């Protein structure tokens, strides 16, 4: 009995392994098992301890059973997102003590059970968003997840967060809550988490925004709020507490502001002394900049050092006020980015109060030279070191240089992707300028307008045909995508350490061009170094591929199959069966030449001499001479009421019969008709039938066929059955 039990267990395991191999071939011999998007309705059996990653995403799994993952004890990652999971047995994940990533997002879970996660002591990343649960339950589902690093939860139905829902979690690198329809938040619910590096919350209900922010001031480093309509908040965001604030960055994404709400927010955010960075991305401002500057000024100094505004839409932006009265709020700001927001000017009075600003990014806006004169007026931006004016509407390089020369500490200037078109012979630049980006500015040449103080120069993507400037301090030169035919001389740029000349028209490099200067490293593609060799290799490879295709086509008769398929497609346009008046034969006979003796001397005599006689179509006798074989087959099948297949070992091994059966397979079986009659002349091994004839295999397994018997009495019954089938 013990031996029998062991045998049964081994047999069951072997069966499961075979089933797993069929359902998901990648699992059979690999630690990483990818079964995504294969239409599975259940977790395949046979998972073993060697598998560390199991991807079952994008299937149709509805239920996870206790036994499904019992043997997968080494799993590190389990991906089950985008299925239809609505129920999970409570101990389904119990064996997965080593699991680090669990993704159950975008399923149909209506509730979360703490028991599911009770033994996942190693879990670091948990994704639960996109299900249908409305809350997290009365207690915390995460009590055992002491190593959790990132948590993503919430959905369109998620509406309640209760106190105690996050008990057990102390530290998180990232927390993402989809609370688009969150309507109830119990104060203090998020306070149990001591530290969160980055929190994202989608929140449309502005009434609970302040409550959530108050709970997060002491735990979150970076808070990102999405989809909010910023409320007008009267109460302070800061509670009476001796704990130091932790929050340093606050980001609004896809949010809606009004003049009133943004004025009040500026005042309230000043109370958060730890806040150093504000961001607004893809937001909308309904207003004209008519902010309550008196209240803002009287509320004290802001501690924010970095402000980033990207793609903010201001309706009627041309009517926007110049923010007069905000001067006292900006003198501590160090970094300012306003990009893709249709900025066309900064008032001189305001610009002069950015006394501490080191970095200014105005790329992708509407600045023109006339407005730039106002924006960079005398005394403005006194500490500025880096200025980005790329992707604007500047037209005059001479004026742009002149205006930037008013910046006494400017070190890095990016004016790329402006359409200057021309370059003057002489320009006035800041004496401190070291980095200049003039790429994609349509300049046709380089002149002494380029400052001698530069250490890095980028003039890529212009129409330069030569470069002959003398720049004694230059260390890096970028000349990509120009029309250069020769390298720039080495003597005028003696300190050069990096040179990029990709995508030019260089034909050759001479030793004299380097004048003895040692080149430390050159980064050229294989095509650039050995163009002729690469082209030759490609030609040889193409020739070999064509030769291989011809050989494969010849071996597997590809041309014949293509011609047959074309004939079949033409035949498909015809009626599936000829009209009764066009039927010439009772049956078309498909057989092997090795079986011709039985067919022609036995079957034909028996059927054609019967009373009444049957008219048979044989390829030897009835095919039209000179007509293509496929057309003969098509016409004969269409003009016959039935098709007789005389099956034998010779039949399935004959190339000719395979061709004939191929077409019959298309024409007969794909139409799901009942015109085929199978005669088994001798026993055939199932494996001898070509695998591609799956429908033929199925018919032989499900449909009665006539087997030629050895005895004479049984043969008489055979003929009667065959005649009856032909008459039906």
UniProtKB/TrEMBL annotation:
Disulfide bonds: 27-33, 348-377, 427-449
Compartment annotation: Membrane
Isomerase in keyword set: no
Positions of transmembrane segments: 533-554
Coiled-coil intervals, chain numbering: none
Domain (TIR) ranges: 583-726
Gene Ontology cellular-component annotations: plasma membrane; receptor complex
Main location group: membrane
Gene Ontology molecular function, alphabetical: transmembrane signaling receptor activity; triacyl lipopeptide binding
GO biological process, one term: inflammatory response
Keyword list, A-Z: Disulfide bond, Glycoprotein, Immunity, Inflammatory response, Innate immunity, Leucine-rich repeat, Membrane, Receptor, Repeat, Signal, Transmembrane, Transmembrane helix
Membrane topology reported for the UniProt record: Single-pass type I membrane protein
UniProt-listed PANTHER family: TOLL-LIKE RECEPTOR, TOLL-LIKE RECEPTOR 2
Family: Belongs to the Toll-like receptor family.
Protein name: TLR21 protein
Native organism: Orthonyx spaldingii
Source lineage: Eukaryota, Metazoa, Chordata, Craniata, Vertebrata
């Amino acid at each position: 009995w013990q031996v029998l039990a062991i045998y049964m267990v081994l047999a069951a395991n072997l069966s499961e392994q075979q089933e797993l191999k069929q359902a998901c071939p990648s699992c059979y011999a690999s630690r990483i098992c990818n079964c995504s998007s294969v239409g599975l309705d259940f977790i395949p059996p046979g998972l073993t301890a060697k598998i560390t990653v199991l991807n079952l995403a994008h299937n149709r799994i509805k239920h996870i059973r206790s036994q499904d993952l019992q043997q997968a004890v080494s799993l590190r990652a389990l991906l089950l997102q985008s299925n239809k999971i609505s129920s999970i047995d409570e101990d389904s994940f119990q064996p997965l003590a080593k699991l680090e990533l669990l993704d159950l997002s975008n399923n149909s879970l209506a509730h979360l059970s703490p028991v599911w996660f009770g033994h996942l002591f190693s879990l670091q990343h948990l994704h639960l968003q996109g299900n249908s649960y409305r809350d997290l339950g009365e207690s915390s589902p995460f009590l055992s997840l002491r190593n959790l690093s990132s948590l993503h939860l919430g959905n369109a139905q998620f509406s309640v967060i209760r106190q105690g829902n996050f008990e057990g979690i102390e530290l998180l690198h990232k927390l993402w809550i989809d609370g688009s329809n969150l309507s109830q938040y119990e104060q203090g619910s998020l306070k149990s988490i001591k530290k969160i590096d980055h929190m994202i919350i989608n929140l449309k209900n502005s009434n609970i925004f302040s409550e959530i922010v108050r709970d997060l001031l002491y735990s979150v480093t970076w808070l990102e709020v999405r989809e909010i309509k910023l409320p007008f908040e009267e109460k302070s965001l800061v509670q009476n507490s001796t704990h130091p604030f932790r929050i340093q960055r606050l980001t609004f994404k896809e949010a809606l502001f009004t003049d009133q709400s943004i004025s009040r927010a500026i005042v309230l955010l000043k109370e958060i002394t730890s806040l150093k960075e504000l961001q607004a991305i893809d937001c909308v401002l309904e207003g004209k900049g008519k902010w309550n500057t008196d209240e803002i000024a009287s509320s004290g100094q802001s501690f924010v050092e970095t402000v980033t505004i990207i793609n903010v839409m201001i309706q009627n932006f041309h009517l926007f006020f110049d923010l007069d009265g905000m001067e006292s709020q900006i003198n501590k700001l160090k970094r300012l980015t306003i990009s893709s927001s249709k900025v066309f000017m900064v008032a001189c009075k305001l610009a002069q109060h950015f006394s501490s600003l080191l970095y200014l990014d105005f790329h992708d806006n509407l600045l023109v030279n006339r407005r730039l004169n106002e924006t960079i007026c005398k005394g403005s931006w006194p500490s500025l070191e880096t200025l980005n004016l790329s992707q604007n509407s500047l037209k005059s390089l001479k004026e742009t240089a002149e205006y930037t020369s008013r910046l006494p500490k400017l070190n890095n200037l990016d004016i790329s992707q402006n359409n200057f078109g021309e370059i003057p012979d002489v320009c006035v630049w800041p004496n401190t300028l070291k980095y200049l980006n003039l790429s994609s500015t349509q300049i046709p040449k380089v002149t002494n307008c380029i400052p001698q103080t530069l250490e890095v120069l980028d003039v890529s993507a212009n129409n330069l045909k030569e470069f002959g400037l003398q720049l004694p301090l230059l260390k890096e030169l970028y000349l990509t995508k120009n029309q250069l035919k020769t390298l720039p001389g080495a003597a005028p740029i003696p300190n050069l350490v990096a040179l990029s000349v990709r995508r030019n028209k260089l034909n050759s490099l001479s030793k004299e061009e380097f004048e003895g200067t040692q080149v430390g490293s050159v980064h050229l593609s294989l095509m650039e170094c050995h163009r002729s060799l690469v082209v030759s290799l490609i030609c040889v490879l193409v020739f070999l591929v064509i030769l291989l295709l011809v050989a494969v086509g010849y071996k597997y008769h590809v041309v014949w199959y293509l011609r047959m398929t074309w004939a079949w497609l033409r035949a498909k346009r015809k009626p599936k069966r000829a009209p009764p008046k066009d039927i010439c034969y009772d049956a078309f006979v498909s057989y092997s030449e090795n079986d011709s003796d039985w067919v022609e001397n036995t079957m034909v005599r028996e059927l054609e001499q019967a009373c009444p006689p049957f008219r048979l179509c044989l390829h030897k006798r009835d095919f039209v001479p000179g007509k293509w074989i496929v057309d003969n087959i098509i016409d004969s099948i269409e003009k016959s009421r039935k098709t007789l297949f005389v099956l034998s070992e010779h039949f399935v091994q004959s190339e000719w019969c395979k061709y004939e059966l191929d077409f019959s397979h298309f024409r007969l079986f794909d139409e799901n008709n009942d015109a085929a009659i199978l005669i088994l002349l001798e026993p055939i091994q199932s494996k001898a039938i070509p695998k591609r004839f799956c429908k033929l295999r199925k018919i032989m397994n499900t449909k009665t066929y006539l087997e030629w018997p050895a005895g004479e009495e049984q043969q008489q019954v055979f003929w009667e059955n065959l005649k009856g089938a032909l008459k039906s």
